[in-house]
């Protein structure tokens, strides 16, 4: 028997060292969470011992961005990037372990999400086939950064490519976090909504009845993506448009703490147009177990709305500081409204039912969006009957949470069963990931 498999058989009753990796659609860096994990199923215990986010440099971004959410990306470039990204991620893992004074041989499992380059739920409008016939509607997703390369370079057993099993089981490949959210954060005292705000935002609703049958999960629409897109486009204009010199100085490719949005005034007309555009999408105000991506929410989504806005000042992309802050304020409120509408649509009956039981409902925020104070305040404004808090109050670093959850998913695949996920009408009962031996 392979030595790695022999070792696995001895780990079931021990504390396991699992490194979770997450590279999200924001493309800000590789999240690396070194976790101690005990047990499995509802007895899973997780402790994040080390966490870092290794920022991506220009080489990584220049390779990935042309492939990202691009149906015309050259196949040979996607294929080459599959191995190249794995090598980059492996180097980042090994460097982080060295920084933490941890030998790779002491790590039991590597759990890698990979890099999403295309996500197409069956609701995503697709161009017709070459012969003019309608394209087949079927969910598909692609994460690159091959697990075999990771396992070979790091010499750590690797679980990767988590999303394909979800599609095989009639899901959309996302969201996957409800499985780990349920194992770690179910409560008998309060209804919990776990909201992760990355490039795309998603939530898990866990009723206090503590049964997986009541769990509801979905993507809500844009998380940080449209706000980030606006800043990147403004940075581009600063280098290409002589009239854009009045734009503010950007120290980051995102709105740190929501500082720009805080200086702006919401353009109600443009906000209405954003909402109308979202309503025109097949995934508008997503229901239970639905997913979306930058294939729907991208630069042209924003620019098209601005072009349609002829009754207020924001009729073109702003090239002066105050108007740009107004745009950020509007995008931030649109994001908050998308979150609240998706939660209300997917959970309204559940929230009403459990409200009658007098159980408090608390929303815990994680991901990069947790640091955007304007966004968090807007979400609280849109959901006045729900307390909005940081996931830090659950005892987990909100930045590390998603990477840590993939460590939990890998742990459940290797040491647990899918039985704990049964009886849900919305979420396929399965475990995830492909195993690559060193």
TrEMBL record:
Gene coding for it: anmK
Alphabetical UniProt keywords: Kinase, Transferase
The protein's enzyme class: transferase
Pfam families, alphabetized: AnmK (PF03702)
Protein origin, superkingdom: Bacteria
GO MF, any single term: ATP binding
Protein name: Anhydro-N-acetylmuramic acid kinase
EC number: 2.7.1.170
UniProt source species: Glaciecola punicea ACAM 611
PANTHER family with a match to the protein in the record: ANHYDRO-N-ACETYLMURAMIC ACID KINASE
A GO biological process held by the record: amino sugar metabolic process
């Amino acid at each position: 028997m392979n030595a790695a498999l022999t070792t696995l058989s001895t780990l079931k009753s021990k504390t396991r060292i699992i490194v979770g990796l997450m590279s999200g659609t924001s493309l800000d860096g590789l999240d690396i969470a070194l976790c101690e994990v005990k047990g499995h199923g509802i007895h899973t215990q997780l402790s994040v011992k080390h966490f870092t986010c290794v920022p991506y440099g220009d080489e990584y971004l220049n390779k990935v961005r042309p492939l990202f959410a691009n149906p015309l990306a050259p196949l040979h470039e996607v294929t080459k990037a599959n191995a190249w990204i794995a090598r980059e991620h492996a180097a980042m893992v090994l460097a982080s372990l060295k920084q933490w004074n941890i030998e790779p041989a002491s790590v039991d499992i590597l759990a890698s999400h990979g890099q999403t380059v295309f996500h197409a739920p069956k609701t995503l409008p697709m161009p017709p086939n070459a012969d003019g016939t309608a394209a087949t509607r079927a969910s598909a997703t692609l994460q690159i950064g091959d697990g075999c390369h990771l396992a070979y370079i790091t010499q750590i057993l690797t679980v990767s490519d988590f999303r394909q099993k979800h599609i095989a089981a009639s899901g959309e490949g996302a969201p996957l976090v409800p499985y780990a959210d349920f194992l770690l954060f179910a409560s008998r005292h309060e209804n919990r909504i776990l909201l992760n705000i990355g490039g795309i935002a998603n939530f898990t609703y866990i009723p206090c009845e503590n049964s997986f049958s009541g769990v509801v999960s979905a993507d809500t629409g844009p998380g940080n993506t449209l706000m980030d897109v606006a800043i990147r486009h403004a940075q581009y204009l600063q280098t290409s448009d002589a009239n854009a010199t009045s734009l503010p100085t950007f120290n980051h490719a995102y709105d740190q703490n929501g500082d720009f949005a805080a200086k702006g005034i919401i353009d109600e007309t443009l906000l209405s147009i954003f909402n109308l555009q979202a309503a025109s999408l097949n995934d508008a105000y997503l229901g239970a177990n639905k997913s979306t991506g930058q294939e729907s929410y991208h630069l042209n989504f924003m620019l098209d709305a601005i072009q349609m806005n002829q009754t207020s000042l924001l009729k073109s992309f702003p090239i002066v500081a105050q108007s740009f802050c107004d745009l950020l304020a509007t995008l931030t409120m649109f994001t908050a409204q998308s979150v609240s509408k998706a939660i209300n649509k997917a959970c309204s009956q559940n929230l009403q039912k459990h409200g009658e039981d007098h159980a408090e409902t608390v929303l815990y925020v994680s991901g990069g969006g947790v640091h955007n104070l304007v966004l968090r305040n807007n979400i609280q404004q849109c959901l006045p009957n729900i307390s909005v808090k940081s996931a830090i109050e659950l005892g987990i670093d909100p930045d590390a949470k998603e990477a840590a959850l993939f460590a939990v998913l890998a742990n459940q695949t290797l040491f647990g069963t899918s039985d704990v996920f049964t009886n849900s009408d919305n979420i396929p009962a399965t475990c995830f990931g492909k195993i690559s031996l060193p």
